[in-house]
Amino acid sequence: MAESDSASSIEKTTTSNKRPTPVLMIPLRRCGSHALRLRLNNSKEFYSPYPLHIVDFMPLVPRYGDLSDDESYFRLVVDVVGLQAASMVKWKDMVFDPVDVFESIKNDQRSVHRILWELLLRTGEHHHASIVMDKSLDSVHYAEELLQLFPNMLFLNVVRDPRAQVASMNKAIIHDYDSTLNALAWLEAHQLSRDIIQRHPDRVLTIRYEDFLSNQETVLRAICDFFGIQFLPEMLDVTHSSEAQQISQMSALWATNRFPPVMANKDKFKQQLSMQEIEVIESLTKEFMQLYGYEMMTDANLELSPEVLAAAKDKSSKGRVEAWDSLKHDNYKDYVLRRFRADYLASLNQRLPVHA
Length: 356
Hints:
Elements: E1 21-26, H1 33-40, E2 46-47, H2 70-85, H3 98-105, H4 112-126, E3 131-134, H5 143-149, E4 154-159, H6 162-169, H7 179-199, E5 204-208, H8 209-214, H9 216-227, H10 242-248, H11 269-272, H12 275-291, H13 306-330, H14 332-351
Parallel strand pairs: 1-3, 1-4, 2-3, 4-5
Helix pairs in contact: 2-3, 2-4, 6-7, 7-12, 13-14
């Protein structure tokens, strides 16, 4: 496990009105993030609801126009609140009034992230938490803007062997259906997280998921120390989490979250990936594999041609269509809930002015 040398010296800072300290988990989904979130949620000092993944909303934001205009900003508030309502997993006991949200933040720096975090902070306050974490790992792309909004923000950087993570991504409807494309996404995400670590080393704690698999308590204690909260033995038993039981039945992506982690799964990628795929992943991520102590299985010297990338995109596009069709037949609840959110975003896309 790796962490910032100065992490232990961080004090749990809050805003002037003592709101929870904001935390963003980074940098890429399918890293074991739910396993960590669900265990930490056993602490009353910590709360992290199911993430909204605002990254899917971001292409729409420019079409709201000038956010200094109250009407434009209010429309954005209404639609972000709507995104929360369209989420697959509801935030327990939370209903947001867009008028109240708008009035409370209209004099702050205006941003879609400020709106999202107002919802998150209110949820944390409702649960009497001193730490509230967003597990929308893709928001690593907006880290600098988030730090401008919340200078006390912390980052939990979760690293997973790229071969194992890509193998998991390949089966997830939220990612591409090709190892090359997913390895490129892994590389970009970790380049962004490295930039944050270099610029704000005292704001970031880095852990390896494999270290969590081998010793849950050591890793969870390190995270709790970084957040300034108390470690609880209950964190080691995920059966305490009612949400873990709930979401494990909602989607195949979350089926294992109600069970203890299995150490043997860290090498399952060897059966899931071909040696050619492993060599592509290692070639792209070699620098970070060496940085985080992952042993390579190939020479890792492949170079990607434009033709290979074009074929990968074509393969992934076809795979996505097939995956949605399979999901519809295999798990209609998962399919309907994901389509409801996708349809909500599509409806906004149709309604918003193109010229904005």
